[in-house]
Task: inverse folding
């Protein structure tokens, strides 16, 4: 058993020694090919036009809308993204900053814009990439303007609906109060004309008591409805830009270090594989019959 182990160790040492010998023998070729790939990686990285990215975050608001907002955070982000990614919105932005918008340009423009929710909340982050850092900021600002204009209009519309409901309920309270006071005045007149006990007076007093109960019950119900609507108004918040887009100082693409590192590893692997391939062909020449 020990003898077999020693034999196996000997083969492993021989194999490792042969590998090192092959690599050392072809070291110049390996170094040259690796250097060539690294040089190509450097050239490509510097020839690729840099891409800059800017981002902005906005709070979508807490009002319910079937276009831009919803009580569900995930759906709110999805709805906002769907509308901001629409051809109509993006084509308008392209026309404002470039000339001759085409379908191909529009698709490329869509790929340069991304949306995501921040920590599963009602906050959306918009990322814009462009070759020109100033252009990226302009596009992000334009997207914000489009969103804020439509979102604020819908927010004001929602608030107006609730405000109108509150006004209607307040008018109902005033009308009810006026009717009760009129009924009370009529009862007071009847009471002054009937000092003694009479059937008519007792009946009027009973009606007055019933009217007071109905009035108080109706008033409480209306006040509760008003309080509920006022609570909804307090919960309604408009969309707000949390962090505006700023001009990026450094590009996000290309990643020159990463490209050079990939080129180095690729060159090293290919040159090493080639070295072993040449060594194999040297030791095992192809015989042509």
Result:
């Amino acid at each position: 058993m020990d003898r077999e182990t020693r034999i196996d160790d000997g083969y492993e040492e021989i194999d490792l020694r042969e590998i090192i010998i092959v690599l050392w023998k072809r070291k110049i070729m390996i170094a040259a090919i690796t250097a060539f790939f690294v040089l190509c990686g450097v050239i490509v990285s510097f020839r690729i036009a840099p891409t800059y990215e800017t981002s902005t975050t906005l709070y979508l608001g807490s009002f319910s809308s079937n276009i831009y907002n919803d009580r569900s955070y995930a759906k709110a982000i999805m709805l906002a993204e769907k509308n901001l990614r629409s051809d109509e919105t993006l084509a308008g932005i392209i026309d404002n900053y470039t000339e001759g918008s085409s379908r191909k340009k529009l698709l490329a423009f869509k790929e340069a814009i991304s949306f995501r929710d921040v920590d599963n909340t009602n906050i959306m982050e918009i990322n814009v990439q462009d070759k020109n850092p100033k252009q990226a900021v302009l596009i992000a600002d334009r997207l914000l303007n489009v969103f804020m204009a439509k979102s604020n209009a819908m927010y004001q519309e929602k608030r107006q609906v609730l405000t109108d409901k509150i006004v209607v309920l307040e008018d109902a309270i005033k009308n009810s109060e006026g009717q009760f006071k009129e009924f009370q005045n009529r009862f007071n007149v009847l009471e002054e004309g009937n000092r003694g006990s009479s059937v008519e007076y007792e009946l009027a007093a009973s009606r007055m008591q019933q009217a007071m109960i109905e009035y108080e019950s109706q008033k409480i119900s209306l006040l509760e409805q008003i309080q509920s609507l006022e609570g909804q108004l307090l919960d309604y918040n408009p969309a707000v830009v949390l962090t505006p887009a700023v001009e990026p100082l450094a590009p996000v693409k290309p990643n020159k270090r990463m490209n050079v590192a990939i080129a180095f590893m690729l060159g090293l692997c290919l040159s090493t594989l080639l070295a072993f391939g040449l060594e194999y062909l040297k030791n095992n020449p192809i015989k042509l019959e």
Observations:
- The chain is about 70% helix and 10% strand.
- The helical segments are 2-25, 27-47, 73-84, 87-97, 103-111, 133-193, 199-235, 256-283.
